[in-house]
Amino acid sequence: MSLLFPVWAILFPVWFCLFLILLLKIPGVLPVLPALLIISFLIAVPALSLLATAVCEDDRILLNNAGISFPISFLPGLKFKREFKWCELTSVSLRWEGATDFGPGDSLDLFFANSGQARLHLKQLSKSDLEQLILAISLWAGARGDEHHLLQLQTHLRGGAAEEKRLSITQLWEEEIANRFAPTSFETLRPDSYLQGSKLRVVKVLGFGGFSAAYLAQRNGKDLVVLKEAVDRKDESQSIESRAAKLLEAEASILTQLNHPQIPRIFDHFVEQGRHYMVLEYVPGQDLRQLVRQNGPQSESDVLIWASRACEILDYLHKQDPVIMHLDVTPENLLLRRNGELVLVDFGSAVKRNGNEAPVISGKEAYMAPEQRQHQPVIESDIFALGCTLHFLLTGQDPIPMVVASPRSINPSVSLELDELVNKCTELKPANRIPSAQVLRKRLNELNASLANKLK
């Protein structure tokens, strides 16, 4: 009935007026009780329709670059004003003790000029909606107080990754640089800082380590991008900073020659005030490590689909001239877009196979092939890392370093065929592994088809 409320809003007042005219012109045409019942009905239907409209209305908070719109339930606390511009937001206050699960007293309070306060109970909001709200406040409202605690909350929403220093959106390289170099500090850019004149505005720091940092930024006043930064000092004693800048330049060089929908695009690479910057596509979504943390080991069918898509990306890289090896194919570097598409991020460890110099040892221990540790990576090193990633997705546990992975030994529900495939991917000698991403993808698709037939 609520869907037809505009019709009732027109018809019932007309019928009500006609009925009153009838009663006034022809007194006694109806007994008193029936007349009262009809009048009550003509009043009650529009009133109930209005109430049903309010109850059935989408109760989500609506966000855009102009402002924020609240559902009807918030109106009493906002002096019955529903829509606000971001410039009207005067301050933000977070009440949260840092517990893993939100309690009844945890809330986010938004204060608006001359219009009261909106209290959002964290327990009643989905994690994705809450993260989008925090991002919108940072992007469009600017600094409004409690920035530090909002950043802590956002990190918590992204899978509790603060303790591992992982970036949940693009894993840009903060951990990579921190692992490679001594954790010497440098001053990061502040929110609302500008680069390239006014072309790039820093929204917030995503992470930093060593002499590098990653930021969420806004480009040309519209699009969100990821900004990577590295310090470069010419003093020979400051070789750490110079190496950080060279790594950034190498990553930019690799990304510039790539054009694949499942690899973040690079928009720009520039130097400003002695610091090197790279502007990358912002990829909203969730990495596979977060997904497993929140939901546990994944189904075999989903894992097979994701692995096949990862192979498609690796096959593209391995067919470049010269060959490009990613060398950090891990759950945190495989990102799921909101439409389900898989994206491979963080090319900070990637190298070209041109034989000019021995690559730096990099990557995460449990996912690093033996030959990669010896500065002699090959394309099968990426196959090894992907096999280790499959182990994690199927079990929720990182594989043991330098041991052939067997997810079935931890999760007996894993099929024997997939377990053997993971075994083959993680053989310690490259010659014993599946030889290419193309061959592996074919095997994965065959397994997925076989699984689908069994489920019919």
Give the count of structural domains.
4
How many helices? The count is 12
Which superfamily, in CATH terms, is the homologous superfamily of the largest domain?
Transferase(Phosphotransferase) domain 1
Mean pLDDT: 80
SSE pattern: HHEEEEEEHHHEEEEHEEEHHEEEEHHHH
CATH topology of the largest domain: Transferase(Phosphotransferase), domain 1
Structural class assignment: alpha+beta
Largest sheet: 6 strands, antiparallel
Q: Could you give the order of strands across the largest sheet?
A: 7-8-9-10-12-11
What percent of the residues sit in helical stretches (DSSP H or I)? 25-40%
Instruction: Please provide the count of β strands.
Output: 17
Supply Rg. Answer: 29 Å
| Portion in beta strands | 15-25%
* General form: elongated
Description:
The structure is a single chain. The chain folds into four domains: 2-56, no CATH class; 63-157, no CATH class; 174-281, Phosphorylase Kinase, domain 1 (2-Layer Sandwich), CATH 3.30.200; 286-455, Transferase(Phosphotransferase) domain 1 (Transferase(Phosphotransferase), domain 1). 38% of the residues lie in helices and 18% in strands. The protein has twelve helices and 17 strands. The strands form five sheets. Strands 7-8-9-10-12-11 form a six-stranded antiparallel beta sheet. A three-stranded antiparallel beta sheet has the order 1-2-3. Strands 4-5-6 form a three-stranded antiparallel beta sheet, with no helix packed on it. Helix 3 packs antiparallel against helix 4 and helix 10 (379-395) packs antiparallel against helix 11. The radius of gyration is 29 Å and the shape is elongated.
